[in-house]
Protein backbone atom coordinates (compact mmCIF):
# COMPACT_ATOMS: atom_id res chain seq x y z
CA UNK A 1 0.00 0.00 0.00
CA UNK A 2 1.29 3.39 -0.98
CA UNK A 3 2.20 5.69 1.91
CA UNK A 4 0.80 9.21 1.33
CA UNK A 5 1.56 10.59 4.74
CA UNK A 6 4.48 12.70 3.48
CA UNK A 7 2.82 13.85 0.29
CA UNK A 8 -0.23 15.52 1.81
CA UNK A 9 1.72 18.15 3.72
CA UNK A 10 3.64 18.98 0.59
CA UNK A 11 0.43 19.53 -1.34
CA UNK A 12 -0.98 21.64 1.42
CA UNK A 13 2.17 23.78 1.45
CA UNK A 14 2.02 24.31 -2.31
CA UNK A 15 -1.62 25.30 -2.10
CA UNK A 16 -0.74 27.85 0.62
CA UNK A 17 1.99 29.39 -1.48
CA UNK A 18 -0.36 29.65 -4.47
CA UNK A 19 -3.12 31.25 -2.41
CA UNK A 20 -0.61 33.75 -0.87
CA UNK A 21 0.65 34.75 -4.30
CA UNK A 22 -2.92 35.27 -5.51
CA UNK A 23 -3.71 37.43 -2.49
CA UNK A 24 -0.58 39.54 -2.99
CA UNK A 25 -1.53 40.08 -6.65
CA UNK A 26 -5.01 41.25 -5.67
CA UNK A 27 -3.59 43.69 -3.07
CA UNK A 28 -1.03 45.08 -5.55
CA UNK A 29 -3.74 45.63 -8.17
CA UNK A 30 -5.87 47.52 -5.66
CA UNK A 31 -2.88 49.73 -4.66
CA UNK A 32 -2.16 50.56 -8.28
CA UNK A 33 -5.76 51.54 -8.92
CA UNK A 34 -5.79 53.74 -5.81
CA UNK A 35 -2.57 55.45 -6.94
CA UNK A 36 -4.09 56.06 -10.37
CA UNK A 37 -7.16 57.63 -8.79
CA UNK A 38 -4.93 59.95 -6.69
CA UNK A 39 -2.92 60.93 -9.77
CA UNK A 40 -6.12 61.80 -11.64
CA UNK A 41 -7.30 63.90 -8.68
CA UNK A 42 -3.97 65.74 -8.51
CA UNK A 43 -4.06 66.49 -12.24
CA UNK A 44 -7.63 67.78 -11.96
CA UNK A 45 -6.65 70.02 -9.07
CA UNK A 46 -3.68 71.35 -11.07
CA UNK A 47 -5.98 72.13 -14.03
CA UNK A 48 -8.40 73.94 -11.72
CA UNK A 49 -5.55 76.02 -10.21
CA UNK A 50 -4.32 76.86 -13.71
CA UNK A 51 -7.81 77.99 -14.73
CA UNK A 52 -8.12 80.13 -11.57
CA UNK A 53 -4.73 81.71 -12.27
CA UNK A 54 -5.75 82.59 -15.82
CA UNK A 55 -9.04 84.05 -14.61
CA UNK A 56 -7.24 86.14 -11.96
CA UNK A 57 -4.74 87.42 -14.53
CA UNK A 58 -7.56 88.38 -16.88
CA UNK A 59 -9.32 90.19 -14.02
CA UNK A 60 -6.15 92.10 -13.15
CA UNK A 61 -5.72 93.10 -16.77
CA UNK A 62 -9.32 94.24 -16.96
CA UNK A 63 -8.88 96.31 -13.77
CA UNK A 64 -5.73 97.96 -15.03
CA UNK A 65 -7.41 98.64 -18.35
CA UNK A 66 -10.31 100.28 -16.52
CA UNK A 67 -7.94 102.46 -14.49
CA UNK A 68 -6.09 103.48 -17.64
CA UNK A 69 -9.38 104.35 -19.33
CA UNK A 70 -10.42 106.42 -16.33
CA UNK A 71 -7.08 108.24 -16.33
CA UNK A 72 -7.42 108.88 -20.06
CA UNK A 73 -10.94 110.19 -19.55
CA UNK A 74 -9.77 112.46 -16.73
CA UNK A 75 -7.00 113.85 -18.92
CA UNK A 76 -9.49 114.47 -21.71
CA UNK A 77 -11.85 116.22 -19.32
CA UNK A 78 -8.94 118.33 -18.00
CA UNK A 79 -7.99 119.24 -21.56
CA UNK A 80 -11.59 120.15 -22.30
CA UNK A 81 -11.79 122.29 -19.17
CA UNK A 82 -8.54 124.00 -20.10
CA UNK A 83 -9.93 124.72 -23.59
CA UNK A 84 -13.09 126.23 -22.09
CA UNK A 85 -11.09 128.41 -19.69
CA UNK A 86 -8.94 129.69 -22.52
CA UNK A 87 -12.02 130.44 -24.60
CA UNK A 88 -13.54 132.49 -21.79
CA UNK A 89 -10.30 134.41 -21.25
CA UNK A 90 -10.05 135.11 -24.96
CA UNK A 91 -13.56 136.63 -24.87
CA UNK A 92 -12.71 138.90 -21.89
CA UNK A 93 -9.13 139.72 -22.86
CA UNK A 94 -9.17 140.22 -26.60
CA UNK A 95 -5.96 142.27 -26.56
CA UNK A 96 -4.02 139.15 -25.57
CA UNK A 97 -5.00 137.25 -28.67
CA UNK A 98 -1.44 136.35 -29.52
CA UNK A 99 -0.90 134.85 -26.09
CA UNK A 100 -3.95 132.67 -26.39
CA UNK A 101 -2.88 131.55 -29.82
CA UNK A 102 0.28 130.13 -28.29
CA UNK A 103 -1.81 128.47 -25.57
CA UNK A 104 -4.03 126.87 -28.21
CA UNK A 105 -0.93 125.41 -29.83
CA UNK A 106 0.09 124.02 -26.45
CA UNK A 107 -3.34 122.48 -25.99
CA UNK A 108 -3.13 120.88 -29.40
CA UNK A 109 0.20 119.38 -28.38
CA UNK A 110 -1.45 118.16 -25.19
CA UNK A 111 -4.23 116.48 -27.17
CA UNK A 112 -1.69 114.85 -29.43
CA UNK A 113 0.15 113.68 -26.34
CA UNK A 114 -3.08 112.15 -25.05
CA UNK A 115 -3.59 110.38 -28.36
CA UNK A 116 -0.04 109.08 -28.14
CA UNK A 117 -0.78 107.96 -24.60
CA UNK A 118 -3.86 106.04 -25.79
CA UNK A 119 -1.81 104.36 -28.50
CA UNK A 120 0.84 103.49 -25.94
CA UNK A 121 -1.82 101.95 -23.71
CA UNK A 122 -3.13 99.86 -26.61
CA UNK A 123 0.37 98.65 -27.27
CA UNK A 124 0.75 97.85 -23.59
CA UNK A 125 -2.47 95.84 -23.61
CA UNK A 126 -1.27 93.89 -26.64
CA UNK A 127 2.00 93.18 -24.90
CA UNK A 128 0.14 91.98 -21.83
CA UNK A 129 -2.00 89.64 -23.93
CA UNK A 130 1.10 88.30 -25.57
CA UNK A 131 2.58 87.59 -22.17
CA UNK A 132 -0.45 85.66 -20.87
CA UNK A 133 0.96 82.39 -22.09
CA UNK A 134 4.11 83.00 -20.13
CA UNK A 135 2.18 84.16 -17.11
CA UNK A 136 0.01 80.99 -17.18
CA UNK A 137 3.09 78.90 -16.55
CA UNK A 138 4.07 80.84 -13.40
CA UNK A 139 2.88 80.45 -9.83
CA UNK A 140 0.52 83.18 -8.48
CA UNK A 141 3.21 85.25 -6.71
CA UNK A 142 5.51 85.28 -9.73
CA UNK A 143 2.61 86.22 -11.99
CA UNK A 144 1.67 89.16 -9.73
CA UNK A 145 5.25 90.41 -9.55
CA UNK A 146 5.62 90.17 -13.32
CA UNK A 147 2.44 92.14 -13.99
CA UNK A 148 3.24 94.84 -11.42
CA UNK A 149 6.77 95.21 -12.79
CA UNK A 150 5.63 95.63 -16.38
CA UNK A 151 2.94 98.19 -15.56
CA UNK A 152 5.32 100.07 -13.26
CA UNK A 153 7.83 100.40 -16.09
CA UNK A 154 5.12 101.61 -18.45
CA UNK A 155 3.92 104.17 -15.91
CA UNK A 156 7.45 105.48 -15.34
CA UNK A 157 8.06 105.90 -19.08
CA UNK A 158 4.75 107.70 -19.51
CA UNK A 159 5.37 110.00 -16.53
CA UNK A 160 8.78 110.98 -17.91
CA UNK A 161 7.26 111.75 -21.30
CA UNK A 162 4.54 113.87 -19.72
CA UNK A 163 7.14 115.63 -17.55
CA UNK A 164 9.15 116.63 -20.62
CA UNK A 165 6.00 117.91 -22.34
CA UNK A 166 4.98 119.93 -19.28
CA UNK A 167 8.47 121.42 -18.90
CA UNK A 168 8.44 122.49 -22.54
CA UNK A 169 5.02 124.06 -22.07
CA UNK A 170 6.15 125.84 -18.90
CA UNK A 171 9.19 127.27 -20.70
CA UNK A 172 6.99 128.60 -23.47
CA UNK A 173 4.67 130.31 -20.98
CA UNK A 174 7.39 131.56 -18.61
CA UNK A 175 8.59 134.50 -20.71
CA UNK A 176 5.07 135.85 -21.27
CA UNK A 177 4.13 135.46 -17.64
CA UNK A 178 7.37 137.07 -16.46
CA UNK A 179 6.79 140.10 -18.69
CA UNK A 180 3.24 140.46 -17.42
CA UNK A 181 4.38 140.20 -13.80
CA UNK A 182 7.15 142.77 -14.24
CA UNK A 183 4.90 145.25 -16.08
CA UNK A 184 2.19 144.87 -13.46
CA UNK A 185 4.63 145.40 -10.62
CA UNK A 186 6.16 148.46 -12.29
CA UNK A 187 2.76 150.02 -12.92
CA UNK A 188 1.69 149.46 -9.31
CA UNK A 189 4.64 151.16 -7.66
CA UNK A 190 5.70 153.80 -10.17
CA UNK A 191 6.55 156.97 -8.26
CA UNK A 192 8.49 160.17 -8.72
CA UNK A 193 12.00 160.49 -7.35
CA UNK A 194 13.87 163.61 -6.45
CA UNK A 195 17.52 163.90 -7.39
CA UNK A 196 19.91 164.96 -4.63
CA UNK A 197 23.65 165.40 -4.59
CA UNK A 198 26.61 165.30 -2.25
CA UNK A 199 26.12 168.93 -1.15
CA UNK A 200 23.45 170.77 0.82
CA UNK A 201 22.76 174.50 0.57
CA UNK A 202 21.63 176.45 3.65
CA UNK A 203 19.98 179.85 3.26
CA UNK A 204 21.23 182.70 5.48
CA UNK A 205 19.24 185.60 6.85
CA UNK A 206 22.01 188.00 5.86
CA UNK A 207 25.58 188.02 4.62
CA UNK A 208 26.65 189.21 8.07
CA UNK A 209 25.92 185.71 9.30
CA UNK A 210 28.83 184.37 7.24
CA UNK A 211 31.31 186.26 9.40
CA UNK A 212 29.67 185.10 12.61
CA UNK A 213 29.80 181.49 11.36
CA UNK A 214 33.50 181.84 10.58
CA UNK A 215 34.23 183.45 13.93
CA UNK A 216 37.40 185.00 15.24
CA UNK A 217 40.37 183.43 13.47
CA UNK A 218 38.00 180.76 12.09
CA UNK A 219 37.26 179.17 15.49
CA UNK A 220 33.52 178.76 14.87
CA UNK A 221 33.79 177.14 11.47
CA UNK A 222 36.52 174.78 12.67
CA UNK A 223 34.41 173.78 15.66
CA UNK A 224 31.37 173.22 13.45
CA UNK A 225 33.34 171.11 10.96
CA UNK A 226 34.92 169.08 13.77
CA UNK A 227 31.57 168.45 15.48
CA UNK A 228 29.66 167.48 12.33
CA UNK A 229 32.37 165.98 10.11
CA UNK A 230 31.10 168.18 7.26
CA UNK A 231 33.05 170.70 5.23
CA UNK A 232 31.54 174.22 5.21
CA UNK A 233 32.06 176.16 2.01
CA UNK A 234 31.53 179.88 2.58
CA UNK A 235 32.15 181.74 -0.69
CA UNK A 236 30.87 184.85 -2.43
CA UNK A 237 27.47 183.34 -3.17
CA UNK A 238 25.03 185.71 -1.45
CA UNK A 239 22.89 184.47 1.46
CA UNK A 240 24.08 180.86 1.16
CA UNK A 241 26.41 178.39 2.84
CA UNK A 242 27.28 175.06 1.21
CA UNK A 243 27.71 171.85 3.23
CA UNK A 244 29.84 169.21 1.52
CA UNK A 245 30.13 165.54 2.56
CA UNK A 246 29.54 162.12 1.08
CA UNK A 247 27.67 161.18 4.25
CA UNK A 248 24.12 162.52 3.85
CA UNK A 249 23.27 162.01 7.52
CA UNK A 250 26.15 164.23 8.58
CA UNK A 251 25.00 166.88 6.11
CA UNK A 252 21.50 166.69 7.60
CA UNK A 253 22.85 167.06 11.14
CA UNK A 254 24.96 170.03 10.03
CA UNK A 255 21.98 171.66 8.28
CA UNK A 256 19.74 171.31 11.34
CA UNK A 257 22.53 172.59 13.61
CA UNK A 258 23.14 175.64 11.39
CA UNK A 259 19.46 176.52 11.36
CA UNK A 260 19.28 176.22 15.16
CA UNK A 261 22.41 178.34 15.62
CA UNK A 262 21.05 181.08 13.37
CA UNK A 263 17.75 181.07 15.29
CA UNK A 264 19.52 181.13 18.66
CA UNK A 265 22.01 183.84 17.65
CA UNK A 266 24.70 182.59 20.08
CA UNK A 267 27.49 181.16 17.96
CA UNK A 268 30.65 180.01 19.72
CA UNK A 269 32.47 176.64 20.01
CA UNK A 270 30.77 175.44 23.22
CA UNK A 271 27.30 176.37 21.95
CA UNK A 272 28.07 174.73 18.62
CA UNK A 273 28.84 171.42 20.36
CA UNK A 274 25.58 171.60 22.31
CA UNK A 275 23.46 172.42 19.25
CA UNK A 276 25.14 169.70 17.16
CA UNK A 277 24.39 167.12 19.88
CA UNK A 278 20.73 168.16 19.93
CA UNK A 279 20.60 168.13 16.13
CA UNK A 280 22.02 164.59 16.15
CA UNK A 281 19.20 163.52 18.46
CA UNK A 282 16.59 165.17 16.24
CA UNK A 283 17.98 163.49 13.13
CA UNK A 284 17.99 160.10 14.89
CA UNK A 285 14.35 160.61 15.87
CA UNK A 286 13.46 161.64 12.32
CA UNK A 287 15.29 158.59 11.00
CA UNK A 288 13.20 156.29 13.22
CA UNK A 289 10.01 158.01 12.05
CA UNK A 290 11.12 157.60 8.43
CA UNK A 291 11.85 153.90 8.97
CA UNK A 292 8.54 153.25 10.70
CA UNK A 293 6.67 155.13 7.97
CA UNK A 294 8.45 153.08 5.29
CA UNK A 295 7.57 149.79 7.02
CA UNK A 296 3.96 150.96 7.42
CA UNK A 297 3.76 151.93 3.76
CA UNK A 298 5.06 148.54 2.70
CA UNK A 299 2.77 146.77 5.16
CA UNK A 300 5.26 144.79 7.26
CA UNK A 301 5.73 144.59 11.01
CA UNK A 302 8.13 142.99 13.45
CA UNK A 303 11.30 144.70 12.22
CA UNK A 304 13.61 145.65 15.13
CA UNK A 305 13.58 149.32 16.10
CA UNK A 306 17.31 149.78 15.55
CA UNK A 307 17.00 148.46 12.01
CA UNK A 308 14.13 150.86 11.36
CA UNK A 309 16.24 153.76 12.68
CA UNK A 310 19.13 152.84 10.37
CA UNK A 311 16.70 152.31 7.49
CA UNK A 312 15.27 155.79 8.02
CA UNK A 313 18.72 157.33 7.51
CA UNK A 314 18.41 156.34 3.85
CA UNK A 315 15.96 159.24 3.48
CA UNK A 316 18.99 161.47 3.08
CA UNK A 317 20.98 159.10 0.86
CA UNK A 318 20.78 159.01 -2.94
CA UNK A 319 22.15 156.59 -5.53
CA UNK A 320 22.45 157.78 -9.12
CA UNK A 321 19.93 160.52 -8.35
CA UNK A 322 17.41 158.06 -6.82
CA UNK A 323 16.40 158.47 -3.19
CA UNK A 324 17.51 155.22 -1.54
CA UNK A 325 14.64 155.03 0.98
CA UNK A 326 12.04 155.51 -1.75
CA UNK A 327 13.94 152.98 -3.85
CA UNK A 328 13.84 150.50 -0.94
CA UNK A 329 10.09 151.00 -0.52
CA UNK A 330 9.54 150.51 -4.23
CA UNK A 331 11.74 147.40 -4.25
CA UNK A 332 9.74 145.93 -1.34
CA UNK A 333 6.45 146.59 -3.13
CA UNK A 334 7.70 145.02 -6.35
CA UNK A 335 9.11 142.02 -4.45
CA UNK A 336 5.79 141.54 -2.67
CA UNK A 337 3.88 141.70 -5.95
CA UNK A 338 6.18 139.16 -7.62
CA UNK A 339 6.09 136.84 -4.59
CA UNK A 340 2.28 137.01 -4.59
CA UNK A 341 2.15 136.05 -8.26
CA UNK A 342 4.45 133.08 -7.57
CA UNK A 343 2.61 131.94 -4.44
CA UNK A 344 5.63 132.52 -2.17
CA UNK A 345 6.12 134.22 1.21
CA UNK A 346 5.05 137.82 0.55
CA UNK A 347 6.18 139.20 3.91
CA UNK A 348 9.69 137.74 3.65
CA UNK A 349 10.04 139.14 0.11
CA UNK A 350 8.86 142.59 1.25
CA UNK A 351 11.23 142.67 4.25
CA UNK A 352 14.15 141.56 2.08
CA UNK A 353 13.35 144.25 -0.49
CA UNK A 354 12.90 146.95 2.18
CA UNK A 355 16.22 146.16 3.88
CA UNK A 356 18.31 145.20 0.84
CA UNK A 357 20.14 148.58 0.72
CA UNK A 358 20.27 149.22 4.47
CA UNK A 359 24.05 148.84 4.33
CA UNK A 360 24.25 152.13 2.40
CA UNK A 361 23.39 153.95 5.62
CA UNK A 362 26.65 152.72 7.16
CA UNK A 363 29.00 152.18 4.21
CA UNK A 364 30.73 155.50 5.00
CA UNK A 365 31.55 154.22 8.49
CA UNK A 366 32.23 150.48 7.95
CA UNK A 367 34.45 148.64 5.48
CA UNK A 368 32.89 146.36 2.91
CA UNK A 369 30.18 146.51 0.30
CA UNK A 370 26.77 147.76 1.31
CA UNK A 371 25.31 144.30 0.63
CA UNK A 372 27.76 142.61 3.03
CA UNK A 373 27.31 145.36 5.64
CA UNK A 374 23.52 145.10 5.39
CA UNK A 375 23.53 141.29 5.66
CA UNK A 376 25.77 141.39 8.75
CA UNK A 377 23.56 144.07 10.29
CA UNK A 378 20.39 142.04 9.68
CA UNK A 379 22.00 138.87 11.06
CA UNK A 380 23.12 140.66 14.27
CA UNK A 381 19.56 141.87 14.83
CA UNK A 382 18.08 138.38 14.55
CA UNK A 383 16.54 138.51 11.08
CA UNK A 384 15.78 135.13 9.41
CA UNK A 385 18.56 133.62 7.33
CA UNK A 386 16.46 133.83 4.16
CA UNK A 387 16.21 137.63 4.49
CA UNK A 388 19.92 137.86 5.33
CA UNK A 389 20.79 135.93 2.17
CA UNK A 390 18.46 138.12 0.08
CA UNK A 391 20.31 141.22 1.31
CA UNK A 392 23.77 139.71 0.78
CA UNK A 393 23.01 138.32 -2.69
CA UNK A 394 21.10 141.21 -4.28
CA UNK A 395 24.25 142.25 -6.20
CA UNK A 396 25.30 138.61 -6.80
CA UNK A 397 28.25 138.90 -4.43
CA UNK A 398 27.20 135.59 -2.86
CA UNK A 399 25.08 132.70 -4.13
CA UNK A 400 21.31 132.77 -3.73
CA UNK A 401 20.38 130.11 -1.19
CA UNK A 402 17.01 131.52 -0.11
CA UNK A 403 13.86 131.58 -2.22
CA UNK A 404 13.45 135.31 -1.53
CA UNK A 405 16.91 136.24 -2.89
CA UNK A 406 16.15 136.04 -6.66
CA UNK A 407 12.90 137.96 -6.09
CA UNK A 408 14.77 140.79 -4.35
CA UNK A 409 17.33 140.84 -7.17
CA UNK A 410 14.59 141.19 -9.76
CA UNK A 411 12.71 143.82 -7.76
CA UNK A 412 15.88 145.87 -7.23
CA UNK A 413 16.63 145.80 -10.97
CA UNK A 414 13.04 146.79 -11.83
CA UNK A 415 13.06 149.73 -9.44
CA UNK A 416 16.41 150.97 -10.70
CA UNK A 417 15.78 150.40 -14.39
CA UNK A 418 12.24 151.59 -14.90
CA UNK A 419 11.90 154.88 -16.86
CA UNK A 420 12.18 157.96 -14.67
CA UNK A 421 13.48 156.15 -11.62
CA UNK A 422 16.99 157.57 -11.70
CA UNK A 423 18.32 160.96 -12.56
CA UNK A 424 20.22 161.67 -15.72
CA UNK A 425 23.74 161.01 -14.43
CA UNK A 426 24.79 158.72 -17.23
CA UNK A 427 27.70 160.86 -18.32
CA UNK A 428 29.06 161.18 -14.79
CA UNK A 429 28.70 157.44 -14.23
CA UNK A 430 30.50 156.63 -17.47
CA UNK A 431 33.22 159.12 -16.61
CA UNK A 432 33.84 157.38 -13.27
CA UNK A 433 34.06 153.99 -15.02
CA UNK A 434 36.51 155.44 -17.54
CA UNK A 435 38.60 156.90 -14.73
CA UNK A 436 38.80 153.49 -13.06
CA UNK A 437 39.88 151.86 -16.30
CA UNK A 438 42.45 154.53 -17.10
CA UNK A 439 44.09 154.16 -13.69
CA UNK A 440 44.58 150.42 -14.24
CA UNK A 441 45.74 150.84 -17.85
CA UNK A 442 48.58 153.05 -16.65
CA UNK A 443 50.57 150.03 -15.42
CA UNK A 444 52.99 148.05 -17.59
CA UNK A 445 51.85 144.59 -18.60
CA UNK A 446 48.12 145.37 -18.34
CA UNK A 447 46.29 144.10 -21.42
CA UNK A 448 42.60 144.80 -20.71
CA UNK A 449 40.57 146.44 -17.93
CA UNK A 450 36.87 146.04 -17.20
CA UNK A 451 34.91 148.10 -14.67
CA UNK A 452 31.89 146.01 -13.65
CA UNK A 453 29.13 146.01 -11.03
CA UNK A 454 28.41 149.71 -11.60
CA UNK A 455 31.99 150.56 -10.73
CA UNK A 456 32.13 148.40 -7.60
CA UNK A 457 34.73 146.05 -9.10
CA UNK A 458 37.67 146.43 -11.49
CA UNK A 459 38.97 143.34 -13.31
CA UNK A 460 42.46 143.63 -14.78
CA UNK A 461 43.82 141.18 -17.36
CA UNK A 462 47.63 141.17 -17.54
CA UNK A 463 50.02 139.63 -20.08
CA UNK A 464 51.41 136.45 -18.49
CA UNK A 465 54.71 136.68 -20.34
CA UNK A 466 55.37 140.17 -18.86
CA UNK A 467 53.82 139.90 -15.38
CA UNK A 468 54.47 137.11 -12.89
CA UNK A 469 52.32 136.25 -9.87
CA UNK A 470 54.19 138.54 -7.48
CA UNK A 471 53.97 141.47 -9.92
CA UNK A 472 50.23 140.81 -10.29
CA UNK A 473 49.75 141.25 -6.54
CA UNK A 474 51.85 144.42 -6.67
CA UNK A 475 49.69 145.83 -9.47
CA UNK A 476 46.54 145.14 -7.44
CA UNK A 477 47.96 147.03 -4.43
CA UNK A 478 49.12 149.98 -6.54
CA UNK A 479 45.79 150.26 -8.36
CA UNK A 480 43.96 150.33 -5.01
CA UNK A 481 46.32 153.02 -3.75
CA UNK A 482 45.78 155.23 -6.82
CA UNK A 483 42.00 154.82 -6.67
CA UNK A 484 42.01 155.89 -3.02
CA UNK A 485 44.19 158.91 -3.83
CA UNK A 486 42.57 160.10 -7.06
CA UNK A 487 38.86 159.20 -6.91
CA UNK A 488 35.95 159.98 -4.58
CA UNK A 489 33.50 157.11 -4.16
CA UNK A 490 31.12 155.63 -1.58
CA UNK A 491 31.58 152.13 -0.18
CA UNK A 492 34.48 150.07 -1.51
CA UNK A 493 35.88 149.03 -4.89
CA UNK A 494 37.21 145.51 -5.43
CA UNK A 495 40.30 145.14 -7.63
CA UNK A 496 40.98 141.75 -9.22
CA UNK A 497 44.12 141.02 -11.28
CA UNK A 498 43.83 137.99 -13.56
CA UNK A 499 46.92 136.27 -14.97
CA UNK A 500 46.29 133.31 -17.24
CA UNK A 501 48.90 131.07 -18.85
CA UNK A 502 48.01 128.71 -21.70
CA UNK A 503 50.20 126.09 -23.34
CA UNK A 504 49.21 125.23 -26.93
CA UNK A 505 50.83 122.68 -29.22
CA UNK A 506 49.80 120.81 -32.38
CA UNK A 507 50.13 117.13 -33.34
CA UNK A 508 51.11 116.82 -37.00
List the helices and strands and how they pair.
Elements: H1 7-92, H2 97-136, H3 140-189, E1 199-203, H4 208-214, H5 219-228, E2 231-233, E3 240-244, H6 248-264, H7 269-298, H8 305-312, E4 318-319, E5 322-323, H9 324-342, H10 346-355, H11 370-380, H12 385-392, H13 404-417, H14 426-441, E6 446-452, E7 457-462, H15 469-486, E8 494-499
Parallel strand pairs: 7-8
Antiparallel strand pairs: 1-3, 2-3, 4-5, 6-7
Helix pairs in contact: 1-2, 2-3, 3-9, 5-7, 6-7, 7-8, 7-9, 9-10, 9-13, 10-12, 10-13, 11-12, 12-13
In short, what is this structure?
With 508 residues, this protein is mainly α. It has 15 helices and 8 strands. Residues 190-196 have low confidence and may be disordered.
Commentary on this structure:
The protein is mainly alpha-helical and 508 residues long. It folds into 4 domains: 157 residues; 89 residues, 2-Layer Sandwich (Ribosomal Protein S8, Chain: A, domain 1); 129 residues, Orthogonal Bundle (Hypothetical protein af1432), CATH 1.10.3210.10; 74 residues, K homology (KH) domain (GMP Synthetase, Chain A, domain 3, 2-Layer Sandwich). The protein is 68% helix and 7% strand. It is elongated, with a radius of gyration of 45 Å.
Tell me about the largest β-sheet. Answer: 3 strands, antiparallel
Helix tally?
Answer: 15
Classify the secondary structure makeup into a structural class.
Answer: mainly alpha
What portion of the residues fall into strands of 2 or more residues? 5-15%
Rough shape?
A: elongated
> SSE order, as H and E?
HHHEHHEEHHHEEHHHHHHEEHE
The radius of gyration over CA amounts to 45 Å
Distance between the termini: 133 Å
Can you tell me the number of structural domains? 4
Low-pLDDT residue intervals, each spanning 5 or more residues: 190-196
Helix content: 55-70%
Average pLDDT score: 79
Number of strands: 8
* Order of adjacent strands in the largest pleated sheet: 1-3-2
Amino acid sequence: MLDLSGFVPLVVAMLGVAIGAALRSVVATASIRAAQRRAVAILEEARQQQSALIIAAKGEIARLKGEADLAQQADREAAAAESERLRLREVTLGEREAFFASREVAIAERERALVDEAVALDVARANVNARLAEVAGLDPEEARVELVSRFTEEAERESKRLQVALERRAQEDAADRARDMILTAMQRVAADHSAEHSVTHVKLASDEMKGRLIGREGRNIRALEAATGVELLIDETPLQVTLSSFDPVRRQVARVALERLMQDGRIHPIRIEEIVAKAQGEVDADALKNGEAAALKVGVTGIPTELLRILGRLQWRTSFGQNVLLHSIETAQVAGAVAGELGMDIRAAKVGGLLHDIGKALDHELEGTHAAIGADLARRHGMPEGIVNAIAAHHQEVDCTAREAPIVQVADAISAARPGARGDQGEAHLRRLEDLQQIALGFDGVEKVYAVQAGREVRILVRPEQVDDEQARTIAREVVKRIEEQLAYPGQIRVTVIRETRAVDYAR
